[in-house]
Amino acid sequence: MVRRLVSLLSTIAFAAACTSGPPPPDDSSYVAEVTNARAVKDRFFAEGGESPIPAVERERLLPLPYFEVDTRYNVPAVLRLADERPIFEMPTSTGAPRRMQRVGVLEFTLDGRALSLGAFIPAESQRVEQLFVPFADETTGTDTYEAGRYLDINPTATGLYTIDFNHAYNPYCAYNQAYECPFPPPSNRLPVAILAGEKKPVG
Protein backbone atom coordinates (compact mmCIF):
# COMPACT_ATOMS: atom_id res chain seq x y z
CA MET A 1 0.00 0.00 0.00
CA VAL A 2 2.80 2.41 0.87
CA ARG A 3 4.85 1.95 -2.30
CA ARG A 4 2.07 3.16 -4.60
CA LEU A 5 1.61 6.36 -2.62
CA VAL A 6 5.34 7.01 -2.43
CA SER A 7 5.59 6.53 -6.19
CA LEU A 8 2.84 9.11 -6.70
CA LEU A 9 4.49 11.66 -4.45
CA SER A 10 7.92 11.19 -5.99
CA THR A 11 6.86 13.42 -8.87
CA ILE A 12 7.07 16.38 -6.49
CA ALA A 13 10.29 15.25 -4.82
CA PHE A 14 8.53 13.90 -1.77
CA ALA A 15 10.99 11.06 -1.50
CA ALA A 16 13.94 13.40 -1.64
CA ALA A 17 12.55 15.43 1.22
CA CYS A 18 12.25 12.30 3.38
CA THR A 19 15.63 10.78 2.77
CA SER A 20 19.19 11.88 2.38
CA GLY A 21 20.94 15.21 2.34
CA PRO A 22 20.74 18.33 4.51
CA PRO A 23 17.50 20.24 5.11
CA PRO A 24 16.69 22.67 2.31
CA PRO A 25 18.38 26.03 2.97
CA ASP A 26 15.25 27.99 2.05
CA ASP A 27 12.72 27.37 4.83
CA SER A 28 9.83 28.91 2.89
CA SER A 29 10.53 26.62 -0.07
CA TYR A 30 10.73 23.61 2.24
CA VAL A 31 7.43 24.45 3.94
CA ALA A 32 5.78 24.88 0.55
CA GLU A 33 7.14 21.52 -0.61
CA VAL A 34 5.82 19.66 2.44
CA THR A 35 2.47 21.44 2.19
CA ASN A 36 2.19 20.51 -1.48
CA ALA A 37 3.01 16.87 -0.72
CA ARG A 38 0.20 16.82 1.84
CA ALA A 39 -2.25 18.25 -0.70
CA VAL A 40 -1.24 15.55 -3.20
CA LYS A 41 -1.86 12.88 -0.58
CA ASP A 42 -5.28 14.33 0.24
CA ARG A 43 -6.23 14.24 -3.45
CA PHE A 44 -5.09 10.63 -3.74
CA PHE A 45 -7.07 9.65 -0.64
CA ALA A 46 -10.14 11.53 -1.91
CA GLU A 47 -10.08 10.41 -5.54
CA GLY A 48 -7.66 7.50 -5.95
CA GLY A 49 -9.08 4.10 -6.77
CA GLU A 50 -6.70 2.57 -4.22
CA SER A 51 -7.44 5.04 -1.44
CA PRO A 52 -7.45 3.33 1.97
CA ILE A 53 -10.34 5.50 3.13
CA PRO A 54 -13.79 4.07 2.34
CA ALA A 55 -15.81 6.42 0.14
CA VAL A 56 -18.44 6.95 2.84
CA GLU A 57 -15.76 8.16 5.29
CA ARG A 58 -13.85 10.55 3.04
CA GLU A 59 -15.88 13.66 3.74
CA ARG A 60 -15.43 13.14 7.47
CA LEU A 61 -11.72 12.23 7.45
CA LEU A 62 -10.39 14.58 4.78
CA PRO A 63 -8.41 16.73 4.64
CA LEU A 64 -6.02 14.85 6.91
CA PRO A 65 -5.00 16.72 10.08
CA TYR A 66 -1.32 17.63 10.52
CA PHE A 67 0.96 19.52 12.85
CA GLU A 68 2.30 22.70 11.31
CA VAL A 69 5.46 22.16 9.28
CA ASP A 70 8.46 22.70 11.57
CA THR A 71 12.03 22.50 10.25
CA ARG A 72 13.23 21.64 13.76
CA TYR A 73 11.94 18.11 13.16
CA ASN A 74 14.01 17.65 10.00
CA VAL A 75 17.24 16.29 11.49
CA PRO A 76 20.46 14.64 10.25
CA ALA A 77 21.04 11.01 11.21
CA VAL A 78 23.62 8.25 10.88
CA LEU A 79 22.66 4.64 10.18
CA ARG A 80 24.65 2.21 12.32
CA LEU A 81 24.42 -1.06 10.43
CA ALA A 82 23.83 -4.26 12.37
CA ASP A 83 26.59 -6.89 12.23
CA GLU A 84 23.79 -9.32 11.54
CA ARG A 85 20.19 -8.55 10.64
CA PRO A 86 18.09 -9.93 13.48
CA ILE A 87 14.54 -10.99 12.66
CA PHE A 88 11.74 -9.32 14.59
CA GLU A 89 8.14 -10.47 14.74
CA MET A 90 6.22 -7.22 14.93
CA PRO A 91 2.69 -7.42 16.33
CA THR A 92 0.09 -6.11 13.91
CA SER A 93 -3.43 -4.73 13.97
CA THR A 94 -4.83 -8.09 12.84
CA GLY A 95 -2.98 -10.09 15.48
CA ALA A 96 -0.80 -11.91 12.94
CA PRO A 97 2.89 -11.03 13.49
CA ARG A 98 4.87 -9.60 10.59
CA ARG A 99 8.45 -10.80 10.21
CA MET A 100 10.92 -7.96 9.68
CA GLN A 101 14.69 -7.77 9.72
CA ARG A 102 16.48 -4.87 11.36
CA VAL A 103 19.04 -3.34 9.03
CA GLY A 104 20.47 -1.06 11.68
CA VAL A 105 19.78 1.86 13.97
CA LEU A 106 19.36 5.49 12.92
CA GLU A 107 21.06 7.74 15.47
CA PHE A 108 20.14 11.42 15.64
CA THR A 109 19.86 14.39 17.97
CA LEU A 110 16.68 16.35 18.58
CA ASP A 111 16.72 19.45 20.75
CA GLY A 112 20.10 18.41 22.13
CA ARG A 113 18.92 14.92 23.08
CA ALA A 114 20.51 11.80 21.56
CA LEU A 115 17.84 9.44 20.18
CA SER A 116 17.67 6.41 17.93
CA LEU A 117 15.20 4.43 15.82
CA GLY A 118 15.51 0.96 14.36
CA ALA A 119 15.24 0.69 10.57
CA PHE A 120 13.60 -2.40 9.09
CA ILE A 121 12.94 -4.25 5.85
CA PRO A 122 10.74 -7.33 5.24
CA ALA A 123 12.32 -10.54 6.51
CA GLU A 124 12.36 -12.09 3.03
CA SER A 125 14.10 -9.12 1.37
CA GLN A 126 17.64 -9.57 0.11
CA ARG A 127 18.18 -5.93 -0.88
CA VAL A 128 17.52 -2.72 1.01
CA GLU A 129 15.19 -0.81 -1.29
CA GLN A 130 13.53 1.27 1.41
CA LEU A 131 13.90 1.57 5.17
CA PHE A 132 10.71 1.15 7.17
CA VAL A 133 10.85 3.15 10.42
CA PRO A 134 7.77 2.74 12.63
CA PHE A 135 7.77 4.81 15.80
CA ALA A 136 5.75 5.96 18.77
CA ASP A 137 6.37 9.01 20.93
CA GLU A 138 4.80 10.97 23.77
CA THR A 139 1.97 12.17 21.52
CA THR A 140 0.94 8.60 20.66
CA GLY A 141 -2.61 7.90 21.77
CA THR A 142 -3.41 11.56 22.39
CA ASP A 143 -2.59 13.92 19.53
CA THR A 144 -1.47 11.10 17.23
CA TYR A 145 -2.69 7.65 16.28
CA GLU A 146 -2.54 5.15 19.14
CA ALA A 147 -0.82 2.47 17.02
CA GLY A 148 2.09 4.76 16.15
CA ARG A 149 3.27 6.36 12.93
CA TYR A 150 5.63 5.49 10.09
CA LEU A 151 8.50 6.93 8.08
CA ASP A 152 9.80 5.54 4.79
CA ILE A 153 13.43 6.41 4.07
CA ASN A 154 15.43 5.63 0.96
CA PRO A 155 18.86 4.06 1.54
CA THR A 156 22.06 6.01 0.90
CA ALA A 157 25.56 4.85 0.02
CA THR A 158 27.15 7.03 2.70
CA GLY A 159 25.21 5.99 5.79
CA LEU A 160 24.24 9.65 6.26
CA TYR A 161 20.52 10.39 6.34
CA THR A 162 17.89 12.95 7.17
CA ILE A 163 14.94 11.97 9.35
CA ASP A 164 12.07 14.27 8.52
CA PHE A 165 9.24 13.86 10.99
CA ASN A 166 7.16 16.38 9.04
CA HIS A 167 6.51 13.42 6.70
CA ALA A 168 5.49 11.02 9.49
CA TYR A 169 2.24 9.34 8.47
CA ASN A 170 -0.43 7.09 9.91
CA PRO A 171 -0.70 3.43 8.95
CA TYR A 172 -3.63 2.63 6.70
CA CYS A 173 -5.41 0.78 9.50
CA ALA A 174 -6.02 4.22 11.02
CA TYR A 175 -8.67 4.71 8.30
CA ASN A 176 -9.71 1.16 7.47
CA GLN A 177 -9.51 -1.92 9.68
CA ALA A 178 -9.21 -4.14 6.61
CA TYR A 179 -5.51 -3.22 6.46
CA GLU A 180 -2.86 -5.01 8.50
CA CYS A 181 -0.42 -2.61 10.12
CA PRO A 182 2.65 -3.50 12.20
CA PHE A 183 3.12 -1.77 15.53
CA PRO A 184 6.40 -0.07 16.49
CA PRO A 185 8.63 -2.25 18.68
CA PRO A 186 9.45 -0.98 22.19
CA SER A 187 12.92 0.09 20.98
CA ASN A 188 11.24 2.54 18.58
CA ARG A 189 9.26 4.36 21.25
CA LEU A 190 10.77 7.81 21.62
CA PRO A 191 10.73 9.45 25.08
CA VAL A 192 9.89 12.84 23.53
CA ALA A 193 6.89 14.46 21.88
CA ILE A 194 7.19 14.59 18.10
CA LEU A 195 4.95 17.54 17.25
CA ALA A 196 5.29 16.99 13.52
CA GLY A 197 3.66 15.00 10.77
CA GLU A 198 0.21 13.52 10.66
CA LYS A 199 -2.13 13.76 13.62
CA LYS A 200 -4.78 11.33 14.83
CA PRO A 201 -7.65 10.94 12.36
CA VAL A 202 -10.73 12.99 13.08
CA GLY A 203 -13.15 11.03 15.23
Q: What does this molecule look like?
A:
This protein is of the alpha+beta class. The protein has one domain (2-188). Helices cover 19% and strands 25% of the residues. It is built from 4 helices and 7 strands; from the N terminus they run H-H-H-H-E-E-E-E-E-E-E. It has helices at 2-9, 14-18, 27-47, 58-61; strands at residues 74-81, 87-90, 98-110, 113-122, 131-135, 149-153, 160-164. The strands form 2 sheets. Strands 1, 2, 3, 4 and 7 form a 5-stranded antiparallel beta sheet that branches. Strand 3 and strand 4 form a beta hairpin. The longest helix is centred in the first third of the chain and has 21 residues, at 27-47. The model is unreliable at 1-24 (pLDDT under 50).
Question: What is the subunit organization of this protein?
Answer: single chain
Mean pLDDT: 89
Structural class: alpha+beta
From the alpha-carbon coordinates, what is the Rg to the nearest angstrom? 16 Å
For the biggest sheet, the summary is: 5 strands, antiparallel
Number of strands: 7
Approximate shape: globular
| Element pattern in H and E | HHHHEEEEEEE
Helix proportion range:
10-25%
End-to-end separation in angstroms reads: 23 Å
Number of helical regions: 4
What number of domains? 1
Q: What fraction strand?
A: 15-25%
Low-confidence stretches: 1-24
